[in-house]
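Ops channel
N.P.: pipeline sanity check, posting one input/output pair.
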């Protein structure tokens, strides 16, 4: 019986120490078996620059396009399509492809033009305060129906 108590005490102490171990690490030491979620432990940049497309109506309103119109239902894969097209100087061709897809979809009947831009936005400002950053036009094309 005494052996069981000693074994239980040792196992308990080891488990408590394992749970407390992340407290002695620096915030960026994130690893197995226990993670203190270092990505939330210190301030990170919230500014992001990326290429994306949107539709423009005859009245000049911006219309958000779904990633599948770009070429993939996955957002990050659509982003890769923009990055690849920009690296190969093929944004005008991508714009034409997107415009062709938009022309076939009834829910975008009001869209007359596609614009591909490089936008720089602060995530907190954009998502919380609804403040847009800056955009640089990279390609523009008409939607032909």
């Amino acid at each position: 019986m005494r052996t069981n108590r000693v074994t239980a005490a040792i196992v308990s102490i080891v488990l408590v120490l394992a749970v407390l171990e992340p407290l002695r690490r620096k915030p960026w030491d994130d690893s197995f078996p226990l993670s203190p979620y270092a990505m939330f432990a210190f301030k990170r940049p919230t500014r992001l620059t990326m290429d994306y497309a949107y539709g423009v109506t005859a009245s000049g309103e911006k219309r958000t396009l779904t990633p599948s119109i770009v070429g993939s239902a996955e957002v990050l894969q659509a982003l890769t399509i923009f990055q690849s097209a920009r690296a190969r100087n093929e944004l005008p061709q991508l714009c034409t492809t997107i415009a062709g897809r938009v022309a076939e979809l009834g829910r975008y009947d009001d869209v007359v033009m596609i614009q591909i831009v490089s936008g720089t936005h602060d995530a907190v400002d954009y998502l919380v305060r609804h403040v847009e950053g800056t955009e640089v036009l990279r390609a523009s094309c008409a939607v032909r129906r």
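N.P.: looks fine end to end. Residues 51 and 118 are 4 Å apart (CA to CA).
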